[in-house]
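B., you asked whether I could sanity-check this one before it goes into the benchmark set. Here's the sequence:
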Amino acid sequence: MPLYGTLDITQSPARLPTLPNLDTEAWALPKAEMMQLLMEVPRSSTEGLLPKAMHPALPSYVILAVTRYSDSPVGPFNLAVLRLGSRAGAHPRGFLLGAVASTDAAALELRARWGIPVEAGEVRYVRRHDRVMGTVKKDGRTILDCALVDPQPVAGSDVQYINWVTAANAPLDGTTQPLLIQVDPKYTFYKAERGKPVVNTFDPAAWNAPTLELSNAIVGTCCTVDTDLPRIRFVMDPLKPVFQGTRRIRESRADE
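And here's what the prediction gave me:
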């Protein structure tokens, strides 16, 4: 039998971001610099973190990502996110556990437009000759210190960034209710590199994942891309398998 998550997001709706509607405009985010580190985690440490509608990835892993957006509708900002590797049906997805944005304006808009569980804090993205470094602080305390060491050039076609899923309250059929929302950025690559992930500091509780434990490094990439945050196309019932509970909000991205 297929495995499913055990988290029932409908039991604590007040903890979720709330969207006023599902009709947010897309954001174009040109020349973003992003670092993504994939880390294996013990499956036992992920219990209770994944919604019932989704399947856990086997083996279990998380994605730590730190991105510098030099241009956006709310000005430049940096964003750090933690996503749990998973599947929606047969499709690989990264379920958003926590996020920190470097400006209040970015945090406010990301929560209200896409339901990203983001708070404002200090997020740094630093490029050196032999590494790319990301650090995140909340209330003056370091909750992430990570790096991609010895980056080596690769083709953009060798890099795959999977779509996001986030949990939020949103109006559907006249009722505001907990939903899973797909966020599916697109990427045009200018530069791509692969290297060794290193995590020096990681505070799981600060990322809404108190039981999570990092184990082996898998792979890391850093890329310069044109990307976006698109209009919402799909939402999912958080308690039903996605093949039963997926709802299409709009047909395509052609109008973006």
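One thing to flag: The first helix runs from residue 104 to 114. Otherwise nothing jumped out at me.
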